[in-house]
Amino acid sequence: MKPTEERVLLPGLVRLLMLLTAALVLVVVVVIIQFYGPVAASAPVANEATDGPPLPGSYHRPAVRAPDTATIPSTAAGRQVRYGRELIAHTARYLGPQGSVAHLTNGMNCQNCHLQAGTQGFANNYLAVAATYPKLRARSGTVVSIEQRVADCMEHSLNGRAVPDSSREMRAIVAYITWLGQGIPKGKKVYGTGFVKLPYLARAANQVVGKAVFATKCQRCHGPAGQGQPLADNTGYQYPPLWGPNSYNDGAGLFRVTNLARYVKAAMPFGATFDQPQLTNEQAWDVAAFVNSQPRPHLATPHDWPDISKKPVDQPHGPYADKFSEKQHKYGPYQPIEDAHPQPAKAN
User: Fold this and answer.
1) C-beta of residue 315 within 8 angstroms of C-beta of residue 329
2) Which residues form the Cytochrome c domain (predicted)?
3) What range defines the domain where residue 317 resides?
C-alpha cells in the first residue's frame, strides 16, 4: 500500500474502531444494568376486587366516592332513597327500643359501624353491595339477597330482629344501597369496599396490651366500660357501645378479630381513615382482641357454615375442620391455621 493510500484509509479505520468500541461499551453497560442495576418500577395495576390499600406513604388513589346526595331526584323513588339513608344513619330513632316505627334493635345505628351512612372507604362501605348481591355465602351455604344481608345485620350487629322484606323500611334501605351502587358493573367491587389488608401477627393478638391501647385511644369516645355515648335525646348512640348488653352480639361479623382489627386500622379512632391511620398494625390487632374478649349478647347460630371447611381462620366458634384450638382460631396466630388449609376459604 502506498503512503498516500495509507493516509486516506487510516482515519476511516480509526473512526470504525471508535464506533465499534462505543457499541461494545454500550452493550456492556446495558448488560450490567440488566443484571445488577435497579429494577424499573412498573405502574401498579389495581385489582379492585382483591387489593387492599397501598403501603402507608404510597397511597396512589382515593377510595371511590359515593354519589352526591344532592343528585337524589325529587320523586317518589328519590324520597324512598332518602328514607333509606335516614334509616341507616338514625336506625334507633325508627327501629330502636324507643323507635317510632317498631322496637326491633338494640339502640345502635347502622351508621355506627358503616361510617358516613355506608360511604367511608374501608369502613364497612356499601358501594359494591348492589353489584355483588345476590351471591353465594359460605356462612349460610345459600344464595343471599340484599334483603337477607340487611336482615343478618339487624339480627347480629344490632342484636335484634329484622324488618320484613315487604316493609316500607326494608324497601327503603335496599333502595338507598342500590342507589349508592349506581354505575358499578354487576359482579364488580370498587376500591374502598371490604376491609384493608392487614398482615397477620406472628403471635396471638394480646388482650392485655389491647386493654392499654383501648384506654389511650378508644375510651374517650366509647367509655371506660365500653358503654358508648348515647345521643342527648336517647334515640341512639353518638359513639356505640363496644361490649355489654347493648352492643353487637357474638354472631356479628365484627366479632371476628381479623374483621375488627382491619376495621379499626382503617377507621379508628374516630377521624382516622385508611390512608391516614392512627393505629399501628399491632395496636389494631391487640385492641380488637381486647374488645372481642369482653362480654356481649350470645346468638346461637347452629346452621352457620354448613361446610365447616369453609369457616374463616378466625371464626371463634367451633367445630372446625382442623385441630387448632378455639382460642387460637379467635386470637391467632392465624398463619399456621391458614397454612394447614391448602386452599383456605374466604368466607363472608
Assistant:
1) yes
2) 205-295
3) 207-339
